[in-house]
Design brief:
By secondary structure, this protein is α+β, with helices and mostly antiparallel strands. The chain has five domains: 94 residues, Uridine Diphospho-n-acetylenolpyruvylglucosamine Reductase, domain 2; 118 residues, 2-Layer Sandwich (Uridine Diphospho-n-acetylenolpyruvylglucosamine Reductase, domain 3); 115 residues, Alpha-Beta Plaits, CATH 3.30.70; 89 residues, Alpha-Beta Plaits; 41 residues, no CATH class. Helices cover 34% and strands 19% of the residues. It is built from 17 helices and 20 strands. It has a seven-stranded antiparallel sheet with strand order 15-12-14-13-18-20-16, with helices on both faces. It is globular, with a radius of gyration of 23 Å. The two termini are 39 Å apart. This is FAD-binding protein. Keywords: FAD, Flavoprotein, Oxidoreductase. GO terms for molecular function: FAD binding; oxidoreductase activity.
């Protein structure tokens, strides 16, 4: 792999047999995996361009086991990489060759549901969709719905602050998590937040959501569940130009309308999804918007007309409302299957994740087309248009020398463009290893230093998920350590704190 990761600690690797034996004592039975063939399963996450097997995998079943594993690793200076379902698209669960990979898949129970208070308490290995399925008989659902919701887990959603097609109106994971149980690297078990709307004191839940496994390991999550809206209406709107669709998105939000979801696909993505799912998408358009409205029937009926008028002013060539619930679900089935469908267009694709101001959508999409021509690589666009969260899929063939490197450079330029126009490096996939070296594009040195101080407060020895999120700096200075040369501290006259 070309990606630079922290150098392996030979002292840890030399003790591998003893480490495996100690972990087997903590998690007996089939809870420890150390055979090379079985470790291959864990060598990568959803960012498959980078892979390496872990030293050992441990699959605890109880909070006490998680605590004991982390306490052991802390006492012996062993790195730990937490992992959920492995669907991360930023390399957030990429293993290290000298690290314990802590898999949370066996934490897969829904512990309780309180319909009166509208909360559910779940373990981190519960899949996103399973929460909605559990509460749907009583007319409730869990709002964040990533396209991978059938596989991705709540713990991973917390780590990456995942979103989904309905995040425009109902928010990301951070807006739907009320409390967490977290185990720190030294084995300390903490409870953060509570089952009520706003907990007192520092917002440590908000800090933990999106921390990408660098601060602690989540073992329990209290999520907000919502009653299903009275009505849901979906519109399928085709445009002759990508710019027209982008401007329509900006105009809808500018008019004060907040749909439950507003997704956009360009021609390559439309054709791939239609061939894959047969959702009924028009094939003679350059861009497609799926707009969903929910709430009282009268409100939805009124807003359907308003959005249709805005779309017409922006050059829409087709506008169709779902005739029934089955058709509405087909509209969304095509969108949710777009990522795997694009796999038909090229042997490989590189999925990006950046966020921009909605009003800059037409400009950014036009500039991405120019970049595509410059790099000689195709790109299919499928994204959460309503909140400006772009997901360009860069098409390449890893078997052709240099194409992966070209795809990476193309992706980096897209992310630089996002920041240039006032956006950010990620919307929901996280930084991981993919965007790690681009962090200085968005953050000044003082900003990164402050973030690293937060990391050090929770994980002083930097054993949790090292090599992720922060640029790899020389001499471990990013972890607040002081380099000692020749047995002497630099500038010995300065006070140390």
């Amino acid at each position: 792999m070309s990606l630079v990761m922290p150098a392996p600690d030979s002292r840890v690797l030399d003790r591998r047999a003893a480490i495996v034996a100690a972990l087997c004592a903590i998690v007996p039975g089939e809870g420890v995996i150390d055979e090379p063939r079985r470790l291959k399963v864990y060598e990568s996450d959803g960012l498959t361009a980078y892979r390496q097997p872990p030293m050992v995998v441990v699959l605890p079943e109880t909070v006490e086991q998680v605590s004991a594993v982390l306490a052991y690793c802390h006492a012996h200076g062993i790195r730990v990489v937490p992992r959920g379902a492995g669907t991360s698209l930023s390399g957030g669960a990429l293993p290290l060759v000298d690290a314990v990979l802590l898999g949370m898949a066996k934490f897969n129970r829904i512990l309780s549901v309180d319909y009166a208070d509208r909360v559910a308490v779940v373990q981190p290995g519960v899949t996103n969709l399973a929460v909605t399925e559990a509460v749907s008989p009583r007319g409730f659902y869990y709002a964040p719905d990533p396209s991978s919701q059938i596989a991705c887990t709540i713990g991973g959603n917390v780590a990456e602050n995942s979103g989904g097609v309905h995040c425009l109106k109902y928010g990301l994971t951070t807006n739907n998590v009320l409390a967490l149980q977290v185990v720190l690297i030294d084995g300390t078990v903490l409870r953060l937040g509570g089952g009520h709307l706003d907990a007192a004191g520092l917002d440590l839940v908000g800090l933990m959501v999106g921390s990408e496994g660098l601060l602690g390991v989540v073992t329990e999550v209290t999520v907000r569940i919502l009653p299903r809206p009275e009505t849901a209406r979906a519109l399928l709107i085709g445009f002759a130009t990508v710019e027209g669709a982008g401007q329509c998105v900006a105009d809808v939000i500018g008019a004060g309308i907040v749909p439950a979801g507003m997704e956009m696909m360009d021609r390559p993505a439309i054709h791939a999804a239609e061939a894959f799912v047969h959702a009924g998408y028009p094939l003679d358009v350059e861009a497609l918007l799926i707009v969903e409205l929910d709430g009282p029937a009268a409100e939805c009926d009124h807003l359907v007309g308003e959005i249709a008028a805005i779309a017409t002013r922006n050059g829409a060539t087709t506008c169709r409302a779902a005739a029934d619930e089955a058709e509405r679900m087909r509209f969304w089935a095509g969108r949710k299957a777009a990522f795997p469908a694009v796999g038909r267009l090229a042997p490989d694709y590189y999925c990006m994740d950046g966020t921009i101001p909605r009003r800059r959508l037409p400009e950014v999409l036009a500039r991405m087309r120019v970049l595509s021509e410059d790099y000689g690589l195709g790109v299919a666009n499928v994204f959460h248009a309503g909140d400006g969260n772009l997901h360009p899929l860069i098409l390449y063939d890893a078997n052709r020398p240099g194409e992966l490197a070209r795809a990476e450079a193309f992706g980096a330029d897209i992310l630089r463009l996002c920041v240039e126009v006032g956006g950010v490096l990620t919307g929901e996939h996280g930084v991981g290893v993919e965007k790690r070296e681009l962090m200085p594009v968005m953050f000044a040195a003082a900003d990164l230093d402050q973030q690293l101080r937060v990391k050090a407060a929770f994980d002083p020895p930097s054993l949790l998920n090292p090599g992720k999120m922060f640029p790899l700096l020389h001499r471990c200075a990013e972890q607040g350590r002081v380099h000692i040369h020749g047995g002497a501290l630099p500038h010995p006259d300065l006070p140390r704190f």
